[in-house]
Amino acid sequence: MYPSKTRFSMRVTGLVLLLALLLSSVAVAAPEPQRPSITAASAIVMDYDTGEVLYEKDADTMRIPASMTKVMTAYIIFEELEAGRLTLDTMVPISAANAQKSRDGRNYPASVPLTAGSKVSVDTLLKLILIPSASASCIVMAEYISGSESAFVQRMNETAKRLGMTAAYENSHGAHVHYLTARSQAILVRAFIDRFPQILNYTSLTGVTFNGKWYPNTNKLLPGLDYAYEGADGFKTGTISAAGYCLSATAVKNGRRIISVVMKSSNDRTRHTDSTALLDYGFAMLEYQSPYDDVAYHWCREDVADLKELGVELHAEGDSFRPDEAVTRAEFTAMLYTALEQSGALPPEPALPEEPVEEDETAEAEPVQPLFYDTNGHWAQDYIEKATRLDLITGTDGYFYPNRPITRQEMMVILNRCLDLPDENGLGFADDGDIALWALEAAARTSAAGLFQGGSGNALRPLSTSTRAEAAAVLNRVTAML
């Protein structure tokens, strides 16, 4: 009796172990990140690269930004620097009225005393505005740029409208009440970093010394501060009693940047812990939404995701898209053909000539020869041959060179052949002279259509080999216009 009971227990144990082994061998998809529990009245998380909103809470309610207002003031200062009307070394005079305001912590927090009759550089005033949040320094710059603070505020609202923000600024510093939305603040931070990335040299400072006194940064997510967040390098706090505690923040992880905004938190601690939760959630969503492991933090993530959802042949290797590898002629052909096919935009197949009647029906049919000598048995042979018959692509003297990387101008020619593009000229790049004569028309039309864009130094780079990420971006633009 006892031996049989032992055998029964052993069989049960064996079944349990086998079941556990089977379950462990099944790949389980990562669960969707749990939405953060945010105490702030309004909040938003935005992917910097794409502008995609990953989380929002009452993000379109107009709220009081307090000193987050100073981000717009700094943005306009950087516009003046870009235009050459200011330099960082420009010395700005301090009036007696503004010197008095700089000491009036009750009406113009935070107070950083300025000396009447002195001059302070634009560089120093920027640091005082962005780090200890000096309100009077904003008025100094507003009057220097526009002649009066009211004229400067008009420019602030015009700039907000141009950027697509919902805002109603009434002063340059935020110490007094006016309104904007959390979404608008995120839009502004994104536009600022995109246009003037050097702003991060200021917002990442943990403090500044002025007139012998150390003023710490009020954004405590920065390294070494109370709520340090890995990768944080800005942006700006805001605090007055009517606004509660506000914080716009940004951080980078694995090359990808996230922007968060909280408005009307109850205290300094919660605005930082809320921001930490938002940044964590944003990065987790990038990983969760990623179609492949190696594009989770890549700028091409949305393009690749869109194409994959459409059913485009991306020639991935398991969970790897390999975005920064050169795209081959075969890969681009497969991507292009399936993008057109899934979009219902393939041209009609040409009519085939009538085949002569076979006199001897018992004779063996001759094997079908591949269109190109070098594509027989290639993984993309079918796509290459279909695309060739539709005149989307061509080879050279019987060869297609499927594994050769494709250049940007070759892609332009192919797209110009298979798309009905307007006869417009989008050239005007610094390296137009590098475009081959046979690709000149295609480059002009595809760039005019927005399919190809210039990079650093306004260069089109027609002779450069395209990456798989670039090919995905171009083809996603193609599908959007079909």
At a glance:
The protein is α+β, with helices and mostly antiparallel strands and 482 residues long. The chain has helices at 2-25, 70-83, 96-101, 122-130, 135-146, 149-162, 182-195, 200-203, 268-289, 301-310, 329-342, 381-389, 408-418, 440-448, 468-481; strands at 42-47, 53-57, 91-93, 119-121, 167-168, 179-180, 207-210, 213-216, 232-240, 244-253, 256-265.
How would you explain this protein's 3D organization?
It is a single chain. With 482 residues, the chain is an alpha+beta fold. The chain contains 15 helices and eleven strands. The strands form four sheets. It has a five-stranded antiparallel sheet with strand order 2-1-11-10-9, with helices on both faces. Strands 3-4 form a two-stranded antiparallel sheet. It has a two-stranded antiparallel sheet with strand order 5-6. Helix 4 packs across helix 5 and helix 11 crosses helix 12. It is elongated, with a radius of gyration of 30 Å. The N terminus is likely disordered.
Write a concise keyword list for the protein shown above.
five-stranded antiparallel β-sheet; disordered N terminus; alpha+beta
Which stretches are poorly predicted, pLDDT < 50 over at least 5 residues?
1-29
Order of helices and strands: HEEHEHEHHHEEHHEEEEEHHHHHHH
Radius of gyration: 30 Å
Give me the secondary-structure category: alpha+beta
* DSSP, total strands: 11
Number of DSSP helical runs: 15
The main sheet comes to: 5 strands, antiparallel
